[in-house]
Structure prediction request, 464 residues.
Amino acid sequence: MKRLLLALCLLSASLSAAERPNVIFILADDLGWGDLSCYGHPYAKTPNLDKLAAAGTRFTKFHATGVTCCPARTGLMTGKFTATFQKYPSSFGFGDRVTITELLKKNGYATGHVGKWHIGSVMEPGTYGIDVIGAEEKEGGKRKQVTGDRSRDAPMYDQAIAFIEKHKAGPFYLNIWDHISHHPVNPSPAVLERFGALEFDESKFTPAMREKFATCKKLGGDPAAHLRAFLADVKSMDDEIGRLLAKIDELGLRENTLVVFSSDQGAAPLRDTDGDVAKPDKNGKNKREGSDIDSIRLNAMGYAGPLFRGGKHTDLEGGVCVPFIMRWPSKVPRGRVDDESVLSGADWLPSLCAITGISINAADFDGENSSAAWLGGTHVRAKPLFWKTNTENSDPSMLAGSWKLHGSHRRKGTVTLYNLANDPGEQNDLSAKEPEMLKKLTGQLQAWTATLPKTYEHGDGKED
Prediction:
């Protein structure tokens, strides 16, 4: 470890402008930990992301900083937990908090962003130090549906490739924030055909996923058809990533480009047409079965993988533990799987600053410099990870080492404690069996929540 840290320090200190890596951060939306083939999905077709993982490192304990879109993006951009913002960033932006794009811009990087935003009401060049911000494709105020054989996110990849071609002399930083696999998951017939048939066997999934299939049936849906639609949507994103990676190779940028792929939070739950969690009526039927909207809502077939329960909107590992893949030839080890390092989206800013030689005050950020893990070492966290929504009385959670505590602000609320080392699915509550650990972590969690704003402003920003 000491050698890795020394090598990292020497790398950061010695990088010239020409040697600093280009950086491309691809962020899927609502993609579960287990929704890629390289993360064990039995039916996913993600050959380009699988190749990216084989050529780099795949992490299994990377944690998003929130359970909905804005909080996760806030952590990546600012290195801060969103609950520390009194004004919700979706409406008000980041205020005086510095962003990774501002830091890189000041240090000679061309900066770009294409795709989803959800980090403030202002979306124009110059915001957060971003030179180029690609417009989202919309018609009549709604997102435009691609009807051909390409992904619904194809326009943003066209914009991304144009940005890379223009700034190929580098160094550049580019966010590509997909809409896939967020609702509405409604792939065109051509995209479905490109995916092919699906020979569906429920026994290949965990009990938690089989419960989702059972709910789908009770609502009048066909799990095989809805899973196929979901996976076809994900494959169409993988196809666009393949085009992007081919362009990087064509331009001779592969060796000095850090490519990262992740998701903003775990898989979304099934939803009914009113946006509530999908539940059958008293007769076990879906009152609106057969409508196109129902079909789209039931396409929310994301998978938390073999280890986790929970998903989007929950602090369970299925909601916050997400894929994280990176490739940087000769720097990031090839074909490695890191099962030890516990990483966070809040680490992105301090870690990338270390890699690119940008000096920051570590105390200003909730995240840590975990870049030693990127280069083949193991990162052992010095600080816990915390989760809480921007609501005064919402329940907080924390992860310290392998211990996960779900706290409560309610007088008689449920508090649960898990040891992820031997219970990654958070099935065995140890709060009664481990009173000393419970007391210790409860004190830390209460101390953290005491530092948070007493009230929050949301404006027009909504959870997504």
DSSP finds 14 helices and 15 strands in the chain. Confidence is low (pLDDT under 50) at residues 1-8, 10-14, 281-291.
